[in-house]
Amino acid sequence: MKQNQFYKYCAIILFIFNLALISFFFIAKPPPPGLKNRQAKPVHEVMNLNKEQFKTFKKSARVHMKFMSEFDKGHNELLEKYFRMILEENPNQAEKDALLNALLASEKKKIEATYKHFEEVKMMIKPEQMPSYHQFLEEILSDIVLAQK
User: 90, 111, 129, 140 — which has fewest CB within 10 A?
Assistant: First the structure.
């Protein structure tokens, strides 16, 4: 009888330990990649945006995010086609070069779109907000560069 109680208590203790461990994993999950250095403050607080500026910023950010989402789909398809050529016995060099040029043009569009977005943000802020814009841009750029490392 004593042995049964011992196993019963051990099972209860192990069950509680497992619940605590699972809870810990859900509570302490790490931030998504690329966002580790991002400041906890929202953008409108970092740059001291008023309501109208924040509304304009959100609209610009939505357009940029939509473009980037669509861009990633097309870019990934090109990447897949390019790297699948390695499986071919005798890959067509002209097709390979064409895909590589398409990838380069695609990457150029991505960079230009991001630059345009940053310009739009810069155009909407007031001169006294420029130091906070610089801080915002430095944080974003470090995230972009770190996300690729």
Answer: 90
